[in-house]
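On clarity, I found the account of how folds are encoded harder to follow than it need be. For illustration, here is how one protein appears when written out as sequence plus structure tokens.
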Amino acid sequence: MISLIQELDMEAISRSQAIVKLLQLDLLPHERKFANGLAELVKKLPRVPMEEDANESELITRFVDPFLCGLFDDPEGGVFIRWTNDITVEAQKKRNLVDTSSRSYRNRLERCEMNVLTRVAISCKNALDAQNLEGILSLQIIGRSITFYLLVLPSEGLHVMYKLGILQLPNNLCDLRKLLRDIPLGLLVLDVFHRLCIPSVNPFQPSRHRPTVSESNFDGIFSDRKQSCHLKNYN
């Protein structure tokens, strides 16, 4: 696979030839899915980085969606990558122009990241509860960076979310070979998805689950209200 990408980089073969060769490689099932993701990127990536910054829509359609569809999509098995825009719309409404070098901005950014991650966890928990699955695979996408999480319910009332790793997608064909370093992570994610993100062998047991925090309580935890903090120095 490395030599094939190098040939493409040196323009010894065309994109179409590279895609055909990728799809003809003798690979294991999970390796085949990763190769499918690479093939989709070969179709979409520019040969050199774009000079202007890509907007969110272009990041998804040109970089993220092609790779993830190649990695996960299985139309015959009823598996599709689908996109919702709820959190993005909410974030756009609350966006303010601030001084990015200020401490208050950095603190707000940290709270925002924690807010988003907590929402990811809550969404996973709700899906796990509603569908009675062994586990839920979650993706947090920022730019071309994809963070993979797994949420499981190992014991009564205890939801645990594991961070599997971060995969950085290339923004041009010349950097495509860097993605090959993440093949182990890709194989891990696929193994987790196919082995754990399946219906539970046990019937749904309400006693094992706990109610999800309400939206109002959640917003209260991460609100921007200022609270006084009194410190005393005892000598």
